[in-house]
Amino acid sequence: MSTDFSATSIFRGIGLALAGYSLFSLHDALIKSITDVPVFQIVFFVVLFSFVPFVCILALNAREISLRPKLPGLVALRCVFTVGSLLCVFYAFNTLPLTQVYSLLFAAPVLITLLSIPILGERVKLIRWIAILLGLGGILIVLQPGSVTLTMGHVAALTAALCIACTSVVTRKIGSREHSVTLLLYPMLANVVVSGCLLMLVYQPMPGIALLKMCGIGMLSVFGQILIINAYRSCEAQYIAPMQYSQMLWAILYGTLIFNESIDRNVVLGASIIVISGLMVIWRELVASVGQPVLRTRNLRILGGPQAISDESDKLENSDKQNSAGNNA
Fold it and tell me: What pTM did the predictor assign?
């Protein structure tokens, strides 16, 4: 593992990550603050507004990029999961306390590890099995089956975590074959098309303040993603990945001060256990040098939603061009 990063770079990366995740937390609080508007309508306008900076960044990219997917079937499958995750996440934030939603979404790395066994054929050793069991135990503590009535919000949050995990597993399979722009653009288009079609069935007039909030949500997601991408460029992933759990602190702050949510001890306990399990997964992947680790995912929750383009090169595409040039020569 490289150790070429200076202390200044590490602190800069951590600062950028914390700032980025704080924007995502504000993004989620704004989602929760929009009431009496159908979820499909919120998703449609949020993703639509995020297209403005996305297209601007794409237009400023001087490199020639092919938008034709090399693995259209898997790209389409990834779009299905990203659409499902975004719709479920937005619904969960509208119906559950922020801390509960985050607790369940933080289980995504554990679910990714579980899915990687049958789908990717990964061998899971003792530490990751312990992390899996801890994560599942934490989920049960948060849900408290039998003593708390489970709602559609809980189902939506768990479904979102599962969709996020499936998206990440598919990304591991195709990430080295598809350009980053392809992996961002098609899910965004899918979200616009699906939510737009459903919007025609549920559309209702909304106040200007709600539209303004949706615009803000779209902008926050893009700028937050840019900050996190730059954080990963500043220093190693081991310093950046754990910073996503700072969102729980923002959830407690926004929940108590803005939405008058009480702090449930069981939720805090379960969330702490889930966070520990997630950190164990991250640590294990660093030690094992997994090729497409969970912690390399820019933001687990908004895969396929409003995201910014990184300037990472498409190594396979460049290699194909070089081979083609060599053959022609």
Answer: 0.82
